[in-house]
Amino acid sequence: MPEGRFKSRTFRRVKKKLPGGSTVIHYSKRKPKKATCAGCGVVLQGVARDLPLKMQNMPKTRKRPERPFGGVLCSKCSRLKIKEESRV
Prior knowledge:
This protein is an alpha+beta fold. The chain has helices spanning 52-57, 60-63, 75-87; strands at 11-17, 23-29.
C-alpha cells in the first residue's frame, strides 16, 4: 500500500525494474504545462519545461530564446509586435 501522499495523482507512477528482476513503483512529481504564447496561445518553441528547482540551476540561455519577447511571444507574434512599434 502506498503512503498517503502518493495515493493522489499529483505524483507520476514510474515502474522501475531492479537488477534482481523485480519491479518497483517509483513516484515522481509531474512536469508543469508547456509555455504558451501570450498573443495567440500556440506552444512556444525553445522554452524549457522542468520543475522550478531544475530551472533555477539551468543557465538563462537554455530557459528561453534570446530575442525580444523571447519566452513570452512566439516568433510570429513578436515579429508583428516589432513591426507595429516601429510604425508608431
